[in-house]
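haha ok so turns out i had the wrong file open the whole time. this is the CORRECT one, sorry everyone. sequence first:
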Amino acid sequence: MNRRSRSFYHNILYGLLLRLSSARKMRIGKIGAVLLTIALTACIGSDTALPLPNATATIGSFGLIDYNVARPLHVEGRFVKDSLNRTIYLRGGWAPIFEDTCNARAAIAGESWNSYLATTKWRPEAVNLLFDTAKSWGFNSIATFIWMDWWIYNSRSELGVSRDTIVTDRPYQTNIDEFLTLAGMKGIYVQLRPYGVEAGWGSVGEGRVNFPFPVLGEPYAHDGHIIPNATAFAEFWYDVSYKLSHHPNVIYNLYDEPYISNRQVWLDAAELAVRRIREAENETGGYKHLIQIHWGWCGSCLWIGDWIDQGKTLDNMIFSNHIYRSQGGGAEDTFGPPPYPYNYSVQKSILQYEANDPGIPDPYKPYGRAWKYVVDTYNVPIIATFGAYQGWSDDQEYKSFQNIASILNEWGIGYWVYVWWRTGTSFSIVNDGVVVSSPSRVGQALIDAIADGKT
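then structure:
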């Protein structure tokens, strides 16, 4: 069976499982349920006819089947729920799946995450191992960066060479499409987040740029030769949504840490992008996906009030911010400049209140980030990304990580932790670069926190 046919049947069978699992009134009897489960599992697991991942299933009373696939999500107030109206707390890790290469960077057991095969060859068995490992850590979701130009040109490249260089055996869009299907069959949601407009570092591409299109007088904006304006940015998202609308498990984060001096430019551009995403979904008859909007690095969440007070849409919208105690450079981060606090009650007060609230002790009053204040005041969901800088050896960072996870669990706020599945970064939460790697102490703290959050 060729790869195109395989991907087609992946999507067909995933859709069938979704419909079976959503048909809550369908009673076919226990014998019928067993026979249907055997038939589907045989199809799903076949290595010769239809090589798909196994989708687990449970059979309840009256022969009802519950396939553990990722179902469409929607927002109700501050909560994210699935199509069976169950509250879903999105928790998992950030992984460099599509940031370094146009292939899904996944490896088989005992193989390095940056091996030649992991970089260049599409291998469903490696991708499914990634998802199985994620599930073993308790994840129900994964966040990953993408590059906008790799999507626009449907590249087969990797970092360090031009986007026209052929490195991978399949193009970017094909790999992302099938990655989402396999993730959904495993019950995993995937957040796609542009890290920048043009892939690359140094002389090959611009790499990370704070804003996706040029804005007069803004030194941190992109130069515009790929995305010249807000309309082009919205059209990028229209194209992504149009091509991925059949996936119920994809979440769109419009841009990673956008920042310029005039925030209103971003809010208006994001509103236009959201409108075009919804138009694509309507045109294709696809799912209405969660759309995530972010602003800045890891400051106050009060900017979310600007979006809401201006009457911009809240339809399946989620918001996000980052929490970092330090990044190793002595800069002002979530909890203010050095000396960075790692006391639980101090950190909790900073995350809970607005700046200068009397509930925040001195000298940290100016750094209130208003996470809980915004959730309670505006009744909207916020998702966090956080990590621990060299937390494998820095005891204060390790303690801070545990504090943050506990606080977010208490408030019912979901999170993706940076960075999972790779080494070579000061925020890694695995012990080495071999798959399947054991968790570092920070990784174990994440596993424990996710387990605690389910109780």
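The first helix runs from residue 3 to 22.
again sry for the mixup
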